[in-house]
TrEMBL record:
Residue ranges constituting the NFD4 C-terminal domain according to the UniProt record: 219-403
Keywords: Membrane, Signal, Transmembrane, Transmembrane helix
Source species taxonomy: Eukaryota, Viridiplantae, Streptophyta, Embryophyta, Tracheophyta
Name the record gives this protein: Nodulin-like domain-containing protein
Subcellular location: Membrane
UniProt topology in membrane: Multi-pass membrane protein
InterPro entries, sorted: MFS_trans_sf, NFD4_C, Nodulin-like
Major site of localization recorded for this protein: membrane
Ranges that cross the membrane: 68-90, 102-125, 232-250, 270-288, 300-318
């Protein structure tokens, strides 16, 4: 029992620093200037970070055949290379030229590293807490919502002069450095924690049987069978029009704040990070209390419920008030976090736990697809508004007005899919 709780502490630490792409809005404007990028190119980099999830199934396969400490090490090294090379290019003369295509590929590599760390955390949580997996997964992943805030605080402490951070792209450089180093350092820290059943591959189903309890919410199926099911595609698109929409908004948060005349992007990132934490924590606490009262909540219904305030939040963004911006950002953060947390248990419930590592990484491929579609739409609309202003830079609520209206309709469509 003590080893189980020790493993939970370990994965909480891992999740707390794993979401290295969550601080992208805090330095995206500076990166745009440093690399002389257009808005479309910047949005493509945001997509590239999500595109790493397209290859997330490799981490799921690795978790089946390799020790989890090795899977974790691979993920940390991928992030170290992806962010580290970009950092070296910006601060040293060792790399004189870095083409945009290579920056894109490095960002994909860094984004993929998150999948490896998340897979390890999910597998350990489901394996060690079969009866309370929603609580264990929700509790650990909720700290992933704090990643952006943690990185903001690290940068503020290391570069304690605000002028140093804001000038010469210091913020972008310091975020890239912390993104490359912290996960690797934390991996070395966690290597001393030996989690039972994770030294030489993982069989979740066997681990559950060893605990004396067989949790069989849904039919056990592999990825090929899963992708032939109607439930998979309904779930896939509901996720895309729900949590993924929220992630696309958060990726564009820096540009949205700038277009509305604000310079406090860091405070907005901290706000969404904090509310994302509570959003991820809410479903697991609700599930725990209801289970003690002998009730069970429908996870698809809970996802549909979270989309109601998200729709309202996008509608509020049509108002130019800064108060509406903060309220909307907090609401989108909490709803996105909640849906992300619920989805982990939903995947296991619908498609079983035996191939969970691969199955869930296939489900989250909707994130890069949605990021590409909605992110490119936002960039093209921004560019169109910028061209009408004459200087290519758009200012005001109008920059993202059409985009916000489209995103407002997306959760409504997803709720209809759930009802049908």
């Amino acid at each position: 029992m003590a080893l189980q709780w020790l493993s939970l502490v370990g994965i909480i630490w891992l999740q707390a620093i794993s979401a290295t792409n969550s601080n992208f809005p805090a330095y995206s404007s500076q990166l745009k200037l440093l690399l002389s990028l257009s808005q479309l190119q910047l949005n493509n980099l945001a997509f590239a970070s999500d595109a790493g999830k397209l290859f997330g199934f490799f981490s799921g396969m690795a978790a089946i055949y390799l020790p989890l400490w090795l899977v974790l090490l691979i993920g940390s090294l991928l992030g170290f290379i992806g962010y580290g090379v970009q950092y070296l290019f910006l601060v040293t003369n060792n790399i004189s030229y870095l083409p945009y295509s290579l920056v894109f590929l490095l960002t994909v590599l860094a984004g993929n590293s998150i999948c490896w760390i998340n897979t390890v955390c999910y597998v350990i949580a489901i394996q060690n807490f079969p009866l309370n997996r929603q609580l264990a997964v929700g509790l650990s992943t909720s700290y992933q919502g704090l990643s952006a805030k943690i990185y903001l605080d690290v940068v503020d402490v290391v570069f304690n002069s605000p002028s140093r951070i804001d000038s010469d792209g210091g913020g972008a450089k310091s975020y890239l450095l912390s993104n490359s180093i912290l996960p690797l350092v934390n991996k070395c820290d966690e290597s001393s924690i030996d989690v039972e059943g994770t030294n030489g591959g993982v069989d979740i189903e066997q681990a559950v049987k060893d605990e004396g309890v067989l949790v069989n919410d849904g039919e056990e199926m592999g990825v090929k069978v899963m992708m032939k099911k109607l439930n998979f595609w309904l779930y896939f698109f509901v996720y895309m029009f729900g949590a993924t929409i929220g992630m696309v908004y958060l990726n564009n948060l820096g540009q949205i704040a700038e277009s509305r005349g604000g310079s406090n992007t860091s405070s907005l990132v901290s706000l969404t990070s904090s509310f994302g934490f509570f959003g991820r924590l809410f479903p697991c606490l609700l599930d725990y209390h209801l289970s003690r009262a002998k009730y069970k909540v429908s996870r698809p219904a809970l996802i549909a419920l979270m989309m109601v305030p998200m729709t309202t939040a996008f509608f509020l963004l049509l108002n130019s008030s800064n108060i509406c911006l903060y309220i909307s950002t907090a609401t989108i953060g909490i709803c996105t976090g909640a849906i992300t947390s619920i989805s982990v248990s939903t995947t296991a419930e619908l498609f079983g736990t035996k191939s969970f590592g691969v199955n869930h990484n296939v489900v989250v491929t909707n994130i890069p697809i949605g990021s590409l579609l909605f992110g490119k739409m936002a960039a093209l609309l921004y560019r169109e508004q910028g061209l009408t202003s004459g200087n290519g830079k758009c200012m005001g609520v109008k920059c993202y007005q059409t985009n916000n209206l489209t995103m407002e309709q997306s959760p409504i469509r997803a709720r209809k899919e759930i009802r049908n």
